[in-house]
Amino acid sequence: MDLNLKGKRALVTGGSKGIGRACADVLAAEGCEVLIAARNPGSAANARATDLSQRSAAEELAAWAGDLDILVNNAGAIPGGDLLKVGEDTWRRAWDLKVFGYINLTRLVYGRMKARGHGVIVNIIGGAGERMNAAYIAGSTGNAGLMAFTRALGGASHADGIRVVGINPGPVKTDRLLSLYRQMAETQLGDANRYEELFKGMAFGRPGKPEEIAWMAAFLASERSGYTSGTIVTIDGGAANRS
Questions:
Q1: Would you give the end-to-end CA distance of the chain in angstroms?
Q2: For residue 98, which phi and psi values (nearest 5 degrees)?
Q3: Rounded CA gap, 136 and 104, in Å?
Q4: 13 DSSP β-pair partners
Q5: How large is the average pLDDT for residues 13-35?
Q6: How far is CA 219 from CA 3, 17, 190, 199, in A?
Q7: pTM higher than 0.85, yes or no?
């Protein structure tokens, strides 16, 4: 299916690896002019080194990116831990990057999109926002907040010609997930290389692929999904609906 995205200008944050890299690759394959922002993005002309946890970073990134048709908010990694293990400094650092990083960049990009009368914002959030986990309390709470942000803004953004949507990935085969499962395999099985044995309890016996998230992001960003706003699509193999 041709998504009619050729010539669209897109910015993907956290675009150097994992889901962000997949989103950038898929959008580029669909003909978009893709810009990437990340802490360590490499030296490509379309990439900018940015730490969105810093106060001025969103303003600098928005100015560099210019007028956008598509924004994919993806940068952020909130650490695990329960309430007694995660201190205030950790909460604030994690939320400055993901929660306030999304909000601040969206505010700036949204203003420019409103002036032009069109645009799409895709927030890559996370399944922990709907399937609460006390052992990942900072992530669950932050993701739930971003879900509310996406729904609230996306419910009203039609008046400005803008669509705001979200995706909640479940476990996805990224470097971060593989590192975690190697550690788990070392602890549980005595051999880090046996990590794939721990995938057996997942839906379809595997984690999701980054491309499976990216394909949905591209579809949601396209006019093929032109009546979709304020909606969050969950891609987790059905895990959110299992007890």
A1: 36
A2: -85, -55
A3: 24
A4: 37
A5: 97
A6: 7, 20, 42, 28
A7: yes
Q: Single out the catalytic residue among 136, 181, 195, 227.
A: 136
Nearest of 170, 125, 172 to residue 144 by alpha carbon: 125
* pLDDT, tens digit, 9 for 90 and up, residues 179-214: 889 988 998 999 999 999 999 989 999 999 999 999
Place of tokens 């962000």: 20
Pairing type for strands 70-73 and 119-124 reads: parallel
C-alpha 224/C-alpha 239 separation (Å) is 27
- Quick one: how far is CA 49 from the chain centroid? 17
What does the pLDDT read at residue 45? 86
Give the HSE-up count for residue 4: Cα atoms under 13 Å, Cβ half-sphere: 6
Roughly what angle, to the nearest 10 degrees, separates helices 88-97 and 137-156? 30
Q: What's the half-sphere exposure (Cβ side, CA atoms, 13 Å) at 72?
A: 37
In this predicted structure, the answer to whether residue 11 has a pLDDT above a threshold of 90 is yes
Going by C-alpha positions, the residue among 167, 182, 163, 159 that lies closest to residue 123 is 167
CA distance 189 to 191: 5
* Distance (Å) of CA 230 to CA 3, 45, 118, 149: 20, 33, 15, 9
H-type helices in 190-229, by residue range? 210-221
* Helix/strand/coil percentages in the chain, nearest 5: 50, 15, 35
Could you tell me the two tokens for 143?
Answer: 């993701």
Q: Could you tell me which residues come within 8 angstroms of residue 59 by beta carbon, excluding any fewer than 6 positions away?
A: 108
Catalytic status, residue 110 = no
